[in-house]
Fold this protein.
Amino acid sequence: MNYKTLLLSVSLNFLLVPVFAQGDVAKAFSFAGKQTTVLLKEVDSAKLAAANPALVSPRNTKPDGSLGMINSKDWCSGFFPGELWFLYEYTKDAKWLQPAKAFTANIEKEKDDATSHDVGFKIYNSAGNAYRLTRDPHYKDVVIEGAKTLSKRFNPVVGSIQSWNSRNGWKFPVIIDNMMNLELLFEATHLTGDSSFYKIAVAHANTTMKNHFREDYSSYHVIDYDPANGQILHKQTHQGFADNSAWARGQAWGLYGYTLCYRETKNKAYLEQAQKIAKFIFSNPNMPADLVPYWDFDDTAIPNVPRDASAAAIMASALYELSTYSPANAKNYKATADKIIKSLGNGYQSKIGENHGFLLLHSTGHKPAKSEIDVPIIYADYYYLEALLRKDRLAKHKPVVIR
């Protein structure tokens, strides 16, 4: 089945099932509010039980069923503050404002953490959303400082931001996830007028586009470079099934990353890249009918393998935005995103009061390491709410991305 046929099928399927109406967005946020109220209480209890004030954000459910808490240095620490900001944005209810500020404050020090690229995930998703919604200059300063810190990891010889420090034999590893951190740099240029952030983001996007992608527009997870001369040392898929496999969340990061790069630059090469990634994902014969992917498209045990709701949520959020840049594919991209959101709402939501208050079930973090397999993970919830917000804005004829 080719891509156009698949998307036509998706569109026709939507004629046969109830449309995910705007009332359902409100219903989803009502559910999210109830669950997040539970999660806030669970977080307080977990912090007391651990007697460890450094544990500041929820991340997952652990193998024993308990709530997994993390310190601010963890790459996932910014997602829960971001979720609280999304609830405040949609509901306009001031009850979300205080916890959003408090959980953001807990990780603001990460603006100075130059040990990994994850400063983007941590700072943009928390303080970035905080500034967008409050215009408090304090948050603006946090975002700018975070961007300065991230910029220190850029190597002009390689043309990329180093993702992880040297380990596992890697000298200068760059992962596809790093595309998401470019948003912090683009935002810093908007806030300061300093084009150096923009130039680093563009250089990184160009290098990644050149080296991370295969002929079919699937991507590797990790490219290791020689920092002295920029030569590629190794290509692999560290968190996927095999080096030549298409790890689902990695494909989602690429789709989202090049969509945001087109938004910020209007470089048509990025738009074409995003569209080609979308084609690979949604024409893949191993994509399930509900469009919630298996954790890796090439796992030889499919269909008896875990799904990844987090990848689906990221894909849906990206597609809503991409639909506004691609007139020829707009209806199909939106219909595909709608079907993902409908699937997540129907078959992947927690029951109210369960799973410590997480929203979505069935995400997969790092299967080769036997970590976070088929569990709730906080970033799935973050991108699910972001996708719902974008769906709501489209229906109201508002910009999908509001700066």
